[in-house]
Specification:
Strand order of the largest sheet: 2-1-3-4-5
CATH topology of the largest domain: Rossmann fold
Number of strands: 12
Structural class: alpha/beta
CATH architecture of the largest domain: 3-Layer(aba) Sandwich
Shape: elongated
Order of helices and strands: EHEHEHEHEHEEEEHEHHEE
Number of helices: 8
Number of domains: 2
CATH superfamily of the largest domain: Response regulator
Oligomer: single chain
Distance between the termini: 34 Å
Length: 230
């Protein structure tokens, strides 16, 4: 799933890129309105994070231009403009959400996950499993959540990719390179400890006992595996 990040502030673009990449999204960046429209036409992103105050054309104008031919690609305004009227204008122009800078990381991720769920449903939904089980965990890819009894566990797109890969290869050892290629992308070269850190954090959320995992088991020196119980 690809996100177009549009902001004339290089630091904000890098920051959003880091947040989104960590969640498992591919990103494309644009530094102004014209650049955004050019990359939107070339890349056809799944959704857009769009600043409003830019030097060449406003985010409002960019949104109106996109909405002339595309009424469905989600657009999230991320702006310093914080007056209620600004938000109303943005939403009336066809934006799906409006986030005010400076923003809270958790708020941005929650809003983006909500948009991602809608995008995920549109991407050949018949090919995306409604649910699969790993141990006592029920995983719902289309909702980006897992359930253990009555407890809901929020998952990122990358979490889903990793769990589905291990589920599809249940009983097999999945080596580190395969996981990185499938879940991070062959064009991305994460730091050597990136995968281990991600698995460690995911275990804290999905395993009943992270120190004795039942879902994501380590195969030292090789990778990870899931063993389905018969």
């Amino acid at each position: 799933m690809q996100v177009l990040i549009v902001d004339n502030n290089d630091q904000i673009r890098r920051y959003l890129n880091e947040l989104l990449s960590r969640e498992g999204f591919e990103t494309v960046q644009a530094e102004n309105g014209a650049d955004c429209l050019e990359k939107y036409k070339a890349k056809k992103p799944d959704f857009i994070c769009l600043d409003i105050v830019m030097p060449d054309m406003s985010g409002y104008d960019v949104c109106k231009e996109i909405r002339k031919t595309d009424a469905t690609t989600p657009i999230i305004f991320i702006s310093t403009k914080s007056e209620p009227l600004d938000k109303v204008m943005g939403l009336e122009m066809g934006a799906d959400d409006y986030i005010i800078k400076p923003f809270d990381n958790y708020e941005v991720i929650a809003r983006i996950r909500a948009v991602a769920r809608r995008c995920y449903m549109k991407q050949a939904p018949e090919k995306v499993a409604d649910c699969f089980n790993m141990a006592d965990l029920e995983i719902y890819p289309k909702k980006l959540i897992a359930m253990r009894g009555e407890t809901t566990i929020e998952l990122s797109l990358r979490d889903i990719k990793l769990l589905k890969l291990l589920f599809d290869k249940a009983g097999e050892i999945v080596d580190r390179d395969t996981i990185l290629d499938e879940c991070w992308g062959a064009h991305i070269m994460p730091e050597s400890r990136t995968l281990d850190w991600h698995v460690s954090q995911l275990r804290k959320r999905i395993e009943k006992d992270p120190k004795a995992p039942e879902i994501i088991k380590t195969v030292h020196g090789v990778g990870y595996k899931y063993e389905a119980k018969s």
